[in-house]
TrEMBL record, chains A, B:
It comes from Brachybacterium rhamnosum. InterPro entries: MetI-like, MetI-like_sf, ModB_ABC, NifC_ABC_porter, Sulph_transpt2. The chain crosses the membrane at residues 12-31, 51-74, 86-108, 128-154, 175-197, 234-253. It is found in: Cell membrane; Membrane. Residues 49-253 form the ABC transmembrane type-1 domain. This is Molybdenum transport system permease. Its main location: membrane. Part of the binding-protein-dependent transport system for molybdenum; probably responsible for the translocation of the substrate across the membrane.
Amino acid sequence: MTSTLPRWAWPPALFGALFVLLPLAAVLVRVDPSTFLALISAPSSLSALRLSLVTAACSTVLCLLLGVPLALVLSRSRIPGPALSLLRALLLIPLVLPPVVGGLALLFTVGRQGLLGGPLQALGLQVAFSTAAVVLAQTFVALPFLVLTLEGALRSTGGGAERAAAALGARPTRVLLGVTLPGVLPALASGTVLSFARALGEFGATITVAGSLEGTTRTLPLEIYLLRETDPDAAVALSLLLVLVALVVILLAHRRARG
Amino acid sequence: MTSTLPRWAWPPALFGALFVLLPLAAVLVRVDPSTFLALISAPSSLSALRLSLVTAACSTVLCLLLGVPLALVLSRSRIPGPALSLLRALLLIPLVLPPVVGGLALLFTVGRQGLLGGPLQALGLQVAFSTAAVVLAQTFVALPFLVLTLEGALRSTGGGAERAAAALGARPTRVLLGVTLPGVLPALASGTVLSFARALGEFGATITVAGSLEGTTRTLPLEIYLLRETDPDAAVALSLLLVLVALVVILLAHRRARG
Amino acid sequence: MSLHVEAQVPERGLDLALDLPAGRTLALVGPNGAGKSSLLALLGGDLRPARGEVVLGGRVLTSVRPGGRTVQVPAHARRVATLGQEAHLIPHLTALGNVAFPLRARGVPRRDARARAHELLAEVGAADLAERRPGRLSGGQQQRVAIARALAADPELLLLDEPMSTLDVDAAAEIRALLPRFLEGRSAVVVTHDVLDAITMAHDVLVLEGGEVQDRGPTADLLARPRTAFAARFAGLALLHGRAGAAPTAGGVAEGAGAVDPTGVPGTDQDAALRLPTGELIQGRRSGDLREGDPALAALRPAAVTLAPSTGDRTAGTVLARTVTGLEPRGDLVRVRTADLEADLAPEAVAAGTLRPGSDVRLLVPRDAVTIYPAR
Amino acid sequence: MSLHVEAQVPERGLDLALDLPAGRTLALVGPNGAGKSSLLALLGGDLRPARGEVVLGGRVLTSVRPGGRTVQVPAHARRVATLGQEAHLIPHLTALGNVAFPLRARGVPRRDARARAHELLAEVGAADLAERRPGRLSGGQQQRVAIARALAADPELLLLDEPMSTLDVDAAAEIRALLPRFLEGRSAVVVTHDVLDAITMAHDVLVLEGGEVQDRGPTADLLARPRTAFAARFAGLALLHGRAGAAPTAGGVAEGAGAVDPTGVPGTDQDAALRLPTGELIQGRRSGDLREGDPALAALRPAAVTLAPSTGDRTAGTVLARTVTGLEPRGDLVRVRTADLEADLAPEAVAAGTLRPGSDVRLLVPRDAVTIYPAR
Amino acid sequence: SGSSSDTAGASDAGGSTTLTVFAAASLKSSFEEIATDFEADHPGVDVQLSFAGSSDLVTQIGQGAPADVLATADTATMDQAVEQELVTGTPQDFATNTLTIAVPAGNPAGITDLASLAEPGVQLVLCAPQVPCGRAAEKVEESAGVTLSPVSEEQSVTDVLGKVTSGEADAGLVYVTDAASAGDAVEQIDLPEAKAAVNTYPLAVVAGTSQEELATEFTQEVLGERGQEVLAAQGFQAP
Ligand SMILES: Nc1ncnc2c1ncn2[C@@H]1O[C@H](COP(=O)(O)OP(=O)(O)OP(=O)(O)O)[C@@H](O)[C@H]1O
Ligand SMILES: Nc1ncnc2c1ncn2[C@@H]1O[C@H](COP(=O)(O)OP(=O)(O)OP(=O)(O)O)[C@@H](O)[C@H]1O
Ligand SMILES: [Mg+2]
Ligand SMILES: [Mg+2]
């Protein structure tokens, strides 16, 4: 009940909040509502928005499918410490890599002359420059967010209840689904939201590995980038749409994780 | 002792690891060691690296100064639920905003014609085109990483020990420094590393708000982008330097958080 | 520091008022879920009542009244130290660091704090654990460290929630001996399920049931003359409800009614009788004012009850005919349960007879083992 | 299922071997940090020995030997259920969900699991808590739910770590009555610091100290004839070490040497004597084979010791002259400590005299209260 | 442009053909218009436009991007494509662009000509010498014998323009077309010295295209009268 929050935490926290909120307000102030409405109802915007939502959703699912097991392995396996540290550090690299370089790395992997180019072409699969490439790029940059958030939570909770459940005869899968994951639901929600947000905002890697074809690979951030070439104000207005979508998704996700 | 990790978690985890590691390997394969050495000893590279390290370090410190109190307020204050959710969602926006738009938003705030432009000029402060602007841009994009990671950890741990400490007469500040923060040290380390990594890799917001001048505002990612115009292979090689630096920092941070 | 509490916490079912004079130790007893830990949380400042107040030595620590200004002094400023039901040691500090923590929090210099912490650890028998982290301590070792830490806080009011529950017999004995020394001159509340804790450490006992004060009094008094079923079982006594009967003029074995005393000891002022709802009259020693017909209680030690010999016997007491409802081991005796009375009989007695649930039994309740007192 | 354990865990100081025949309940007792919880962790599969094996009903659960193939059956596949020292309920499930959890894990259909869980909750007196989450339960309520959950696991071997420590007197009594019924036909190990738990639930008692087995035997036997200081204190007995003396030919009050028996009861086969290191000879009842001069032990209830009357008395026994080293309350009696002997005296006796640490006292140890047996 | 398909560049099942054009980002407005005209003349043909930085486009095509036509913003990047044999035939120049001085609306620093850019206190932004517009600026400096000291050497014209439109910079050197697209936010100041550095836009058919004929027709469209009109309307000059 008693708040253990020292009073002096408030001023820097407020300042921190302002630091993020003020620029957002500055953008809001600039945007002309009529332009905004016209923009967000333009077919190219809508097509980009649809593509963005679809690909970000796919990427998020991929992130969950790969990231949850990865976080589990990082937090619960018996991999020796140094190897684990190195693996964790390597997995964080997409965070630090400039996205365009990340895109190049992907291109070097699945492109025609890439590492997997030969095998993929033999299978008749053309990954680069397709919608699949967008998902690939988004997943690449978004995966570390999920892994990191979830791993942190897994590390700091649940050992006792998990061991108790196993001691009562629950198999690892049941322990995982019945005890571990419900216990880290808030972190799982945070991680999912983070990776969705990162996927939604992804630009550099996408344009590099997927190109920018309307309806196929031109997501909302790419549309915003292109728009900036000709009409910077419109670009800013359109990015408001991105922000709105992200806000709605984040709020919904948090509500569901609570309820 | 017994691993509660289901066996089926391994294949997707391995696949996830490959998903990140393979592109990195693809980059490594491309890089010519002799070019690499020549590149990383070039004065422009070194100057960019130095600037990157200095600014990323400053940004990380700023992130800590603002982000730790923010995370504390989000996790420990009595702000009512809906307001808290909204605040948290708003703080995540820099994640989803295309970095260039984030840079514009900052420009609209601290630029000459921005929200705070008047007051800042009255104080004789010129933010744009300065190293300070680089730090500003990096902090803006990196702050959510620290806040989110730390808040998640704060939410899921420590209540009991904190209350016990308060019940023994420890003031909130002592509880915070003596119990709360040491308890979330791994998350604090993760969050710090994440925000440092993000600051180190930051490009879009930096170029928009700070421009690109060697020694003053041209960080390593900016140097890499520029290099890409004339010599894409060299750009990729230079980004390896970024990766190496990030790896070293991440590994050191994790070692210290453990020890 | 005298303590005054008055509080309602509807979500925990708590509704009570209580005063504790300065320098006294109160044992707080009651069934699981009675609200004992909640009451401590209220005193410690971790729980805010819907309505009520907590006043310690004149300082208002909590005050919530409709219309009034709400006061809730934060936990750290109350000068109330709590050792909770869970140890909650600080995981990254050593045992020594944990014990030194409240000292450092009070501003004691590092060296002094460590020295004092060493002393306290030695007192709870954990001197050799000083450098271990909590994660590497056994449950009882953690509890010892937690006790030392609570003592280190040097509070005006000390709250201990089941401090002995995980201690071994030796440690429990040592700490039962240590605590009263430490508590001298302080006020303290000790929650316990063990009557020995109450006897050895507390001046007063308070029985909490369903969030309400059911009984309270000086320890010896309350344990000898419990007024609720829970208090009686806590004290290890069987409790019979009835009305004061006419004091017999002489002791003796009574067949549930008039008494015959083969030893011919004359009835004294101390003699009393309790008329059970069944009509039977039990002989016993009076304690307190009893007027015939007043609601009264009789408390007795089940171990004092024996099987009534078929032939006459020299023991003065009452014979009650009962039907056995249950049998269970109880120490080296066998507890025989009947509708209103328990008896702890020697195994030989049970084995010799054909005692089993449903069988009839004649129990002899010695007069000297029965205390009869007003139900208040 | 018979259990065989043999293990060394150096970092916990554990080094023991132990066999438990099928269908028996073992009470595991010992001081804090003795290794009790560690032993359970070893059996449950949460701790791997540096060397050793665990075999349950012929199934090798753990086997670690140099050169051999290491076997460590994971916790969930051992058919061993553990109720740990902490309840560790699953926080997001209700009490009912927690109890149903092990049933669901065994594949019991949801409806049946819930029905059975309801039954079990009722048995531990927590039926009305079914829909509550652990965070909203009191400590004792959580423990009740944890007990019900452990019972729901229906294991071959049940491990209970201090299951009663937070229960109120009623719940503890109920569960002491419930467990033996449930444990029938199963093997179980119950860790406890309460002699009552051992008496009511366990066939055998094992005393663990410093990670080693110090003593073990059938409950009644071990509690009557403890062989270690800890076991004696656990059983509530005072323990004297010495050598078997010549059996006296007759009972009586002995001045620490020859015995005089004013009642003239002749010495029987049961009579024995123990020569203390001080040279004194204590009279008692023999239990087991004793040859004069063999190391032997005498156990006695401190409450049976009285102040030796200055005049002759009819009680047969030994008078020992001692110096008081400490006094402390013990129930409604006062415990008087001397170098080698404790006596629980009535407060009147203490108050009347001038008993204080340092004063001399003559203690009468009744012959019938002393058991003398070989030290093995 | 319109319907989407999973793999860009493949023929649609419905008999319609897709022509994929990779063009520099600065060509967005003009090429979109040209593509619409082209589609109108070629029923059943769907022109897909992909815009990115010139060097990105070359890298992508090198990695097998399904392009039919490549149009870059400078000859240097096109030369790379030729070197790597990514295009067939000789690239054709279809437009040129020259630098101009862009200043924020109202010209707060009072810029009048190239020399005034070198005055102290002027916040000047240029493109970095590594990018085409930066190379052009360097040439202008050399030919005019002026040394400019910019506060920032941007990665692209868009970035330079962004600094000027936001009022952060007092002046910048950008292409005429860019200044034109910024509308009222900037004012142009004539830069006669720009003649020294004319930037040329080449385009070519991508090697290995399955629709060489259609691709060639598209290049003709750009080079033709209608295409040149569209480009001129955006401020481009004829090659
Ligand atoms: N996680 C651990 N790592 C290392 N040592 C431990 C750990 N847990 C306990 N110990 C040590 O191992 C020994 C045995 O501990 P264990 O918990 O088995 O004792 P216990 O008999 O259960 O005691 P208690 O009655 O206090 O619960 C103790 O000395 C303890 O300090
Ligand atoms: N966090 C909580 N939120 C709501 N109700 C609670 C909470 N904790 C306990 N309760 C309920 O409040 C009542 C009082 O609980 P409390 O913990 O005070 O009992 P207690 O007397 O300490 O019991 P025990 O002997 O089991 O520790 C119980 O009915 C319990 O279920
Ligand atoms: Mg409690
Ligand atoms: Mg233990």
